[in-house]
Amino acid sequence: QVQLVESGGGLVQPGGSLRLSCTASGFTLDYNAIGWFREVPGKDREGVSCISSSDGSTYYADSVKGRFAISRDNAKKTVYLQMNDLKPEDTTVYFCAATAEGCYQWVVPGGYYGMDYWGAGTLVTVSS
Q1: How far apart are CA 49 and CA 70, in angstroms?
Q2: Residues 26-71 pLDDT 10s
């Protein structure tokens, strides 16, 4: 059974950094795009970042551009989200997700419904 296993969440001060990890376990994961969503109270999950399996192209939400960086290690079957200069408004639950479609699903409304795999989520708290 394919599973996305997340780690790296925790408590950090404003301006600090965290690195989230998402590792695919089980059989080989078949996907075209993988990345991160986060909970937004009262709204659909927000697409934070995505990386394409085909060409490595990336997407970042405007709110995290210049602060977050997504990367992958194919040998380890792991995707990372390096989060720098964290702000209190970044506080929420982050979810790893993958889809057979593409990174456009991180942009379009309701795109998260098209995810084929989800991690359980990891809590990031940014507070002094």
Answers
A1: 7
A2: 756 667 899 999 999 999 999 999 999 888 999 999 999 999 999 9
